[in-house]
């Protein structure tokens, strides 16, 4: 009778745990939420009949009952280990964001850029100010819906050359970005500063380190073997074309000279798009972001979708800095945007005078390139 009761109680524990686990899977609860369940179930067990019965048991039966509880906790420990392992697996397939507090502690945001001004200050009195202003005037006038369609068609063929990721870094190293009021270093410095700063704060997210390293490689469009595109068609903040320009765009006033500005097909809030259509379906002004996205995607990178989103929209400041154009996002965009916010801090604020020993870190990045990309890519 006593053993039958013990079996009954143990089976009850097992059934209870199985039920909790099934519930978690069916409801699609997060693992954090799920980890609360063993605590609830323990409380449940305390107030349920076996515990009430404990009070009236003789000492021998009490020992047996305690053994049952130990049995319960061993299952709990096994389930917890399972949860941790499952969490690690998910981190590889779909990156989870670390808490912002931890990140802010790790990365110290500098006060000034390479010119001694605050970052992204387009009015600061510097030798770059006039150049940057002129740059945006040309950019805003020429980035039309038709121009973007034509460039995507032309460069999307990826029939210009074949080279490895590291070769493209070396190719890029001879340029300075005219649109950037914060940077006067060769590009390799900026790429490695970004990647290394991320690596310091997110040591386990190797995909994000590599994203930092490659996010600007689309700037090879400036090179003669890529048609030597003018800077206004390669760099600078990006924005959707085919719908009204948001006023949060830097130097918004110059859009008034863009032919799309007065075209009723393109100048309404949604233009040729619909609410929540997803950025995937939106044409962005042409530049290194979209081009590098095409290169990575068409060469079958195994980087996660958050990495591709970062590469494609890292210059979309109206969205990730000002929160504009939210009505175009779908659910996946909203998830990926969280990672873009993490990334942007490193992209923007690592443009300082921190020097990186290229030869020292190169082997690490070569191993990441090998992990996520083919040896040669079509460009
Ligand atoms: Fe960029
Ligand atoms: Fe960058």
TrEMBL record:
One of its GO terms (biological process) is L-ascorbic acid biosynthetic process. It holds the Pfam family MIOX. Pathway: Polyol metabolism; myo-inositol degradation into D-glucuronate; D-glucuronate from myo-inositol: step 1/1. SUPFAM superfamilies: HD-domain/PDEase-like (SSF109604). GO terms for molecular function: inositol oxygenase activity; iron ion binding. Its main location: cytoplasm. The keyword Iron applies. GO terms for cellular component: cytoplasm. Binds 2 iron ions per subunit. Keywords: Ascorbate biosynthesis, Cytoplasm, Iron, Membrane, Metal-binding, Oxidoreductase, Transmembrane, Transmembrane helix. Its EC number is 1.13.99.1. Substrate binds at residues 120, 177-179, 219, 236-237, 314-315. Its cofactor is Fe cation. The chain crosses the membrane at residues 34-51, 63-85. It catalyses: myo-inositol + O2 = D-glucuronate + H2O + H(+). Fe cation binds at residues 190, 215-216, 288, 314, 347. Belongs to the myo-inositol oxygenase family. PANTHER family: INOSITOL OXYGENASE 1, MYOINOSITOL OXYGENASE. This is Inositol oxygenase. The lineage of its organism: Eukaryota, Viridiplantae, Streptophyta, Embryophyta, Tracheophyta.
């Amino acid at each position: 009778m006593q053993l039958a009761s013990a079996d009954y109680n143990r089976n009850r524990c097992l059934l209870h745990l199985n039920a909790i686990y099934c519930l978690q899977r069916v409801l699609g609860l997060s693992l954090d939420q799920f980890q609360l369940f063993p605590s609830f179930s323990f409380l449940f067990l305390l107030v349920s009949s076996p515990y009430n019965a404990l009070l009236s048991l003789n000492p021998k039966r009490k020992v047996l009952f305690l053994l049952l509880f130990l049995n319960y906790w061993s299952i709990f420990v096994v389930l917890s280990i399972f949860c941790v392992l499952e969490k690690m697996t998910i981190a590889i397939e779909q990156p989870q964001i670390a808490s912002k507090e931890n990140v802010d502690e790790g990365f110290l945001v500098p006060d000034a850029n390479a010119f001694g001004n605050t970052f992204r200050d387009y009015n600061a009195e510097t030798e770059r100010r006039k150049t940057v202003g002129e740059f945006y005037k040309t950019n805003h006038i020429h980035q039309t819906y038709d121009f973007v369609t034509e460039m995507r068609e032309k460069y999307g063929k990826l029939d210009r050359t074949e080279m490895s990721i590291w070769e493209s870094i070396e190719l890029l190293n001879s340029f300075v970005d005219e649109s950037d009021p914060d940077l006067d270093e060769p590009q390799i410095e900026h790429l490695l500063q970004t990647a290394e700063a991320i690596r310091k704060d997110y040591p386990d997210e190797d995909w994000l380190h590599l994203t930092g390293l490659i996010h600007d490689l689309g700037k090879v469009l400036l090179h003669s073997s890529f048609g030597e595109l003018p800077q206004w068609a390669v760099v600078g903040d990006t924005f959707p074309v085919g719908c009204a320009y948001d006023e949060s765009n830097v130097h918004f006033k110059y859009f008034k000279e863009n032919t799309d500005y007065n075209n009723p097909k393109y100048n309404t809030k949604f233009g040729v798009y619909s609410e929540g259509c997803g950025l995937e379906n939106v044409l962005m002004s042409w530049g290194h972001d979209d081009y590098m996205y095409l290169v990575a995607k068409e060469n079958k990178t195994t980087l996660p979708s958050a990495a591709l989103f970062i590469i494609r929209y890292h210059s979309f400041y109206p969205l990730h800095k000002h929160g504009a154009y939210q009505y175009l996002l779908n659910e996946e965009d909203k998830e990926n945007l969280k990672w873009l916010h993490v990334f942007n801090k490193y992209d923007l604020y690592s443009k300082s005078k921190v020097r990186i020993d290229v030869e020292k870190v190169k082997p690490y990045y070569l191993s990441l390139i090998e992990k996520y990309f083919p040896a040669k890519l079509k460009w």
